Amino acid sequence: MAEIDKEKLKAEIRRLAQERDAVILAHYYVDGDVQDVADFVGDSYALAKTARGDPRKTVVFCGVTFMGESACVLNPDKTVLIPETSAVCPMALMVDAEKIRAMREKYDDLAVVCYINSTAEFKSLSDVCVTSSNALKVVRALKNKNIFFIPDGNLGRFIAEQVPEKNFILNDGFCHVHTSITARDIETAFREHPDSKIIAHPECMKEVCDMADFIGSTKELIEFTESDGAGSFIVCTESGVLHEMRKRSPGKQFFSVGARQVCPNMKKITLEKVRDCLAGMAPRARVSEELRDSSSRPLERMLELASR
Ligand code: 13P
Ligand code: SF4
């Protein structure tokens, strides 16, 4: 799209947002133009809190559908618009309800800890939700010794390594974008950019995390690149974060570890779809009354434990 048309579209979105009393939220993984038109850009945790605290009646959630769904559950009085209903995170479905029931039978003090990258249905079967930036704090605050961590096996392993006093049962869910990164990819990138620090999201595999100088949520990775003395970074997560990193540290260099670090679902959110959902006030995130009640409990508990 020509630059001039893009700017016109952004102006139209801003005008519609004002007319509809809407706040536009965007995850760091969506396209840079969509990030630029948003009121707030953040990681999953920051966006969940912002959706809650903002006074506007409408929330436009530019991210994958579980994010809009969580905002809908936590804000029953607001209208939550999701620009693309097919932008589903595959990991959100990688849970077996039967396995949760079996684990509860096996361990009587079990806490089912559910990464926010999950459907409302799986949240409703859990005791508490977490995001990548608050998982350690929330898990440490739980009294339970036995933790069944769903759906992401890699985030679960990363947290388990830091809390050896608890018994973690890991699930086999994964993010295909992060697990496509291999130790070999890092070796190749490091040969090309030997002065770089390696930073990784905890959804990466162990072999990748073991090579990283720093591991953190998208927000934590961005903040690390701002505060760290290094001038160059090899980034092991979805390439959308490079947009904010470059904005905050224009003098530094950022390299995506490979060409595959693109989440196809996050990238379904386009300026046109943001404009159209505001114009038509649809599609909306919808969760049944029953599911809203049962899935709000673990989300509220996360917000409470993470804010202590
Ligand atoms: P954050 O918790 O860092 O926002 O990550 C969300 C996500 O989808 C990672 O793949
Ligand atoms: Fe899901 Fe991975 Fe995309 Fe995050 S990057 S939304 S975990 S598929």
TrEMBL record:
GO molecular function, one term: metal ion binding
GO cellular component: cytosol
Signal peptide range in chain numbering: none
Pathway stated in the Swiss-Prot or TrEMBL entry: Cofactor biosynthesis; NAD(+) biosynthesis; quinolinate from iminoaspartate: step 1/1
InterPro entries: NadA, NadA_sf
Enzyme Commission number: 2.5.1.72
Xref: Pfam families: NadA (PF02445)
Family annotation (Gene3D superfamilies): NadA-like
Alphabetical GO biological process terms: 'de novo' NAD+ biosynthetic process from L-aspartate
UniProt keywords, alphabetically: 4Fe-4S, Iron, Iron-sulfur, Metal-binding, Pyridine nucleotide biosynthesis, Transferase
Cofactor section: [4Fe-4S] cluster
Descriptive protein name: Quinolinate synthase
